[in-house]
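User: Structure please.
Assistant: Input sequence and predicted structure:
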Amino acid sequence: MPFARLKDRALISVSGPDAEHFLQNILTTDLDTLKPGEAKPGALLSPQGKILFDFLISRAADNSFQLECRADIADDFVRRLMLYRLRAKAEIVKQDQVLVTVEWDGDSTASLSDSRALADTRFQDITVRRSYGGEARDGSDPNGWLNMRIGYGIAEGGSDYQLGDAFPHDVLLDETGGVGFKKGCYIGQEVVSRMQHRGTARRRVLIASADALLPVPGTELTVAGRPVGTLGSVGGRTGLAIARIDRVKAAVDAGETIMAGDVPVTLAIPAWAKFTFPQDAVSAEEA
């Protein structure tokens, strides 16, 4: 069974009698729908609705929660959580030296090796499990994990977009269960709800493919010199991109080539996603 040890991840534990109420009031994830054994995506937003921190959250023992995030943002994340804690009875602790392992199989009914592992709910029709702690083992395949994540269309902060520069809709948190549209208020909720109800999300995660090796992450996607998006994670001839779907549709309708640097690319919606290209795409000059 393929697996990868992720060396760039960290865990933050939030415990105490007010832990769930505290987190429910500030995070995008609806904790009322978070089941034991699941790791759901989510974000802590700015008041303007931009993603400041992204993570996977799961329930742990004694009604506590663990938030898995990038190791390089963990300390800042802890500080921001403490800023919002106020009088809530919640203890926030970064766990040091935790081994994070992800394991996957194309069969959605597959039983993976660690029965304590958490279902990564971003992957809706294949089995992906994450486990924390345990013993290191040989055979880790980080490139296999990267290619699997790219092929499925799952974007992550740092690799595919910069924190502070993306709305939840941009990175499909609205479609992967990372935003609770039926929960109460949270930080940035007004902006996110407005985008949802008005259908104004224009930037979306797309899968890029090419006949040649793709350039490095961060390369601008252009049509006739006009920007339409940015390349994210790259694995050979495929990669992720965050792009304006209205501009991509206009380029396709006009028969114009989308370029990543000097490499022509094709952009496609992830197979599982529910959003579509707009029927009446505006031109880049009008947008």
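Residues 108 and 125 are 5 Å apart (CA to CA).
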